[in-house]
Amino acid sequence: MPNTQYTQLAEPLWPLLNKFYRRHQSSMKAVRDAQLWVGKRDEIIAGLCLRPMAEGFWLTGLFVDPALRGQGIAAALMAQALLQIKAPVWLFCHPDLREFYERNGFTAGPLLPYALAERLARYNRSKPMIAMGLEPGK
């Protein structure tokens, strides 16, 4: 298996993550107020964003090149990005992804900050989404 590097993306390189998302017709976007993380081989093969939110972080934009899925890339990228996080982390996902996130330490139905609870309610009007959370040290 090729060597994959998991690193936080330096600010001057942030546009590369959006380019990666667009190349795969993903609606995900890298945002400026986040920590941006990537999995790289010769080029970006996966990305995620950690946005500061309330007293924790909102994990968004986790996406792996569809041709490379099933190799543990998403789990490894997430593990590296969360390694130094000492605050709660929340995410929204389709119910089909619940088991994946549970295998990676997340639990369904966390207490959400108000801003995220409102956003989840809006999202659920048009698509099924569940909230999951990860508490540091658990």
Helix/strand order, N-terminal first: EHEEEHEHEHE
CATH-assigned homologous superfamily: Gcn5-related N-acetyltransferase (GNAT)
CATH architecture level-2 label: 3-Layer(aba) Sandwich
For the record, the count of structural domains works out to 1
Give the % helix.
25-40%
What is the β-strand count?
A: 7
Oligomer: single chain
Figure out the total of helices.
4
Class in CATH? Alpha Beta
Strand-pairing-aware structural class: alpha+beta
N/C terminus separation: 31 Å
Q: What is the approximate shape? A: globular
* Rg: 14 Å
Mean pLDDT: 94
Low-confidence stretches: none
The fold-level CATH name is Aminopeptidase
Content of β-strand:
25-35%
**Largest pleated sheet:** 7 strands, mixed
Overview of the molecule:
This protein has helices at 14-23, 73-82, 98-103, 114-124, and strands at 5-8, 35-40, 44-53, 56-64, 89-93, 107-108, 130-134. With 138 residues, it is an alpha+beta fold. It has one domain: Aminopeptidase (3-Layer(aba) Sandwich). A seven-stranded mixed sheet has the order 1-2-3-4-5-7-6, with helices on both faces. A hairpin with a 2-residue loop joins strand 3 and strand 4. The radius of gyration is 14 Å and the shape is globular.
